[in-house]
Structures are given as C-alpha cells and as structure tokens.
UniProtKB/TrEMBL annotation:
Keywords: ATP-binding, Nucleotide-binding, Phosphoprotein, Transcription, Transcription regulation. This is Sigma-54-dependent Fis family transcriptional regulator. The modification 4-aspartylphosphate is found at D52. It comes from Alistipes communis. It comes from the Bacteria. SUPFAM superfamilies: CheY-like, Homeodomain-like, P-loop containing nucleoside triphosphate hydrolases. Gene3D superfamilies: 1.10.8.60, 3.40.50.2300, Homeodomain-like, P-loop containing nucleotide triphosphate hydrolases.
Length: 442
C-alpha cells in the first residue's frame, strides 16, 4: 500500500485530506510542522509527501530540498495558497513533483497522488536495481584466493578510487572485463554509465562511427544522426576491450580525445566535449606490437599510466577448485539441479587441465558437466572425454568415441536442438559439430 505523509498545521484541513486519501486505499500519516514531518520521513518512509507552504517552524518551499536529501525516492506535492504561483514554480525548481492550490484544486489531488506514487515506486525499483548491479560488479564478486590474483585485486582497488586510466593485460578469459567493471563500480563514476566496446568486433569504418558517432548523410547508410560511444559514456567509464586490435589511424584519433577531451563526429565540423575515464584491455603484448609498427607508442604511454597484469590460471592452479565450486553452485541454481557432493576426481581432473581459455573455459566446462549430471553427485564422468583421458584411464578409442557421442547428443538435447548453442557449450566450431553429427548418422 502506498504511504502518504501530510504536513500541514491546520488540523481540520489535515484531517479532511487524510480521510479523502485514506478512503482511496492509501496509508496516511500526519505532521503539524517541519520538525515532526522530517522525523516521520525517516521512520515512516512515505512514497509521497503532501506539504503546506506556511508552517509554524519553516517554509514548505524550502523544505522540499531537505525532504529530497533525506528521502530521494519520495515525491513532494506542495499545497500552495490561492494565487501564489511563484511558490509552486520555486517548489518544482527545488525538486517537487508538482503543486496544487489549496481548496481550489481538490479534484486534482487524487490523480496527482496516483502519478506521484507511481513515480516514487519506479524510483525505488531503480535504486534497488542499481544496488544489485553494483553488488554484482563489486570487487567482492571476484573469485580467487591465490597471491597472484589478490595482488591484482589490491592494485585495482587502489586505482579505482582515482580517475586514472587503467590498462588491464592478461590472456583471454582471465577476467579483464570483470576487473574493469569492478574498478568502475568502486570509483567516483559508479553512478554513471559503464560502456564497453570490443575493438576487434568491428571493421575500421564501423568502429570509428561506433566510437565517434555520425551526422545523418555523412556516408552511405548513415540515415540518422547517431550518438557515439564516447558520448554515451560521458561522465562515466569507457571500456575499450582488445585495444591492441584497434586500427592505427583510429589510435591517433583516440589519443586526441584522451588529451583534449574533445572529438569531432563524422560529418561534423564542431568538436564535442566529453569527460571520460578510460579502461583499456588487451591480451596482446603491446610492446611487441609497438616494435612491429601496429600500435602507437604515445597512446601506449597514455593508456598504461596504471597497468595491471591479470595472472593466467596456469600460474595459480590453487584457484581452480574454488572456481569449480563457485560455478557449480551458480549453474546448479540456474538449471534447478541439486548437487550435494563434488567428487575429488572431478576437481583433480580440472586441476590437471591446461586452461588456455582461463576462467571462461573453466566456467564453460563446469556448465557442460552440470548439463550431464544426473544425480546429486558431480563425478568426473560428467566431464568430456579429454579430461578423463588425462586421468590415466587406459586409452580405448572406441569407448571414447561412444562417450563423445553420448556427450554431444546430451548437450544438443539440452540446447533444445539449437546447434549454434550446442557448439558454444561444447567449445567447438559449428562446422565440427555438423561433421560429428553426420558421422553419428544424426
Ligand atoms: N576472478 C573471477 N571471478 C569470477 N569470475 C571470473 C573471474 N575471472 C573471470 N571470470 C569469469 O570468466 C569469464 C571471462 O571473464 P572476462 O570476460 O572478464 O575475461 P577477459 O579477460 O575480458 O576475456 P577476453 O580477453 O576474452 O575478453 C566471465 O564469465 C567472468 O564472469
């Protein structure tokens, strides 16, 4: 039930309003002055405050700012005296939802209340969503207790509080994007946008228009004005993933944006100003790329003011078991399965493996084995044959083929026959999947 707080010093009017509003199904509290109103604000947590202008210990117009400070999600409707429009206008400037003239606008109160409570509810929902999002991307969600990973987390926590550019380096799947988001969330721009772009996913022309935006008609196909990602990320953070793949000509333009905070949209002549934090990531050795003429040294210096190297999983095998348990819990919940025990042989097989795809590969392997799991015990049998082959089992290619067939068909069944999804889960190309299915006569 939506909650309404009425702040008014006239007892009769207050009681009348409370009755009208209460009859509509709202929960109502009353306060005769500012002091009581402010106290009730934190105790009662109203959705909407109906507030008079002239109060014994203050002025309602000025109170609006205080109310919004204490309860940002609450909406305020001011009750102004007849003919006093300037009060209402000032109240809206101070953050009020609207104002109504006492006595004159009685029929407007209920529709206005309904709109104000709806807005307050949306705001609460948004605040909860933002809190959940920031929790999901916080440093606390970064798994791994090895010394190497903890050192990287410590460095990231330190730099997060500043506004410095960060360069995250490390093999694919080591968590560069996870770190970038945590740095953003723990930094001064947490409430602003985090915009990620994968520089390897676009051709040079497309990447340029994605980043800078364009004016309609500036090139064939540019039918509308388009905001670029620099602008989308204004005041927030732009995460440039796979920066090593950015074409050299664009690197020069990026450097200019970093140095001046300005850029020119495609098809425009006037510069646009932006205020950004840049976090870049790469799995390439940028120093080698500089030597080979593929990366600009000046951009490298600019981006690598603070560099964090994320350790590969092969350098911290002690983390494998922790990731495995974490991902088992995550996927079991997602798939509605109950896993009571994880066999030691299962963990041992994962610890033996060489993880070229690092945490991402490990996560995918756990997801696949949960699809295979039938009971409440997760055994090494749920892993694909290559893991078991490494466990010292006698090589029996016929048995392996049969296992592989069983595994692939089960994954395909889980993916509801969607071959692209099955190939993704299996970690093989779609063409390989088709070849295998054909050999099984499927
Ligand atoms: N320390 C970690 N804790 C929890 N999850 C992690 C961690 N590191 C990686 N992951 C998970 O592994 C997957 C890959 O992580 P991410 O995309 O951040 O890697 P990346 O280094 O950016 O990869 P790429 O270079 O391929 O873009 C994601 O699903 C992420 O949630």
């Amino acid at each position: 039930m939506a909650k309404i707080l009425i702040i008014d010093d006239e007892p009769q009017l207050r009681a009348l309003l409370a009755r009208i509003i209460g009859l509509e199904g709202y929960d109502v509290e009353q306060a005769p002055d500012c002091t009581t109103g402010l106290r009730l604000l934190s105790q009662y947590e109203p959705d909407v405050v109906l507030c008079d202008v002239k109060l014994p210990d203050g002025n309602g117009v000025e109170l609006v700012g205080r109310i919004k400070e204490i309860a940002p999600a609450a909406e305020v409707i001011l009750l102004t005296a007849y003919g006093n429009i300037p009060d209402g206008v000032q109240a809206i400037k101070n953050g009020a939802f609207d104002y109504i003239t006492k006595g004159d606008d009685n029929n407007k109160i209920l529709p206005l209340l309904s709109r104000a409570t709806e807005k307050a509810r949306m705001q609460r929902r948004l605040a909860r969503f933002e809190a959940k999002l920031s929790d999901e991307h916080s440093f606390d969600r970064i798994i791994g207790s090895s010394e190497a990973l903890r050192q990287a987390v410590n460095l990231a926590r330190k730099v997060a509080a500043t506004d410095t550019s960060v360069l995250l380096t490390g093999e694919t799947g080591t968590g560069k994007e996870v770190f970038a988001q945590a740095i953003h969330q723990a930094g001064p721009r947490a409430r602003e946008a985090f915009v990620a772009v994968n520089c390897s996913a676009f051709s040079k022309e497309l990447l340029e228009s994605e980043l800078f935006g364009h004016r309609a008609g500036s090139f064939t196909g540019a039918t509308k004005d388009k905001k670029g990602l620099f602008e989308e990320a204004d005041k927030g953070t732009l995460f440039l993933d796979e920066i090593g793949e950015m074409p050299v000509e664009l690197q020069a333009k990026l450097l200019r944006v970093l140095e001046s905070g300005e850029f020119i949209k495609i098809g425009e002549t006037r510069p646009t100003k932006v205020d950004l934090r840049i976090i870049a990531a790469t799995n390439r050795d940028l120093e080698k790329e500089i030597a080979a003429g593929n990366f600009r040294e000046d951009l490298y210096f600019r981006l690598s003011v603070f560099r964090i190297q994320l350790p590969a999983l092969s350098q911290r095998r002690e983390d494998v078991a922790e990731y495995a348990r974490y991902f088992v819990g995550q996927f079991a919940a997602k798939m509605g399965k109950r896993i009571e025990t994880i066999d030691d042989a299962y963990i041992a097989a994962l610890e033996r493996h060489t993880w070229h795809g690092n945490v991402r590969e490990l996560r995918n392997v756990v997801e696949r084995s949960l699809i295979m799991a039938d009971g409440e015990r997760l055994s090494a049998d749920t892993l694909s044959p290559e893991f078991r082959a490494g466990a010292g089992a006698p090589p029996d290619s016929l048995a392996l083929d049969a296992l592989e067939r069983h595994h692939i068909l089960k994954v395909l069944e889980y993916a509801k026959g969607n071959k692209t999804e099955a190939a993704r889960l299996l970690g093989i190309g779609i063409a390989t999947l088709y070849r295998k299915l054909e050999s099984y006569g499927v």
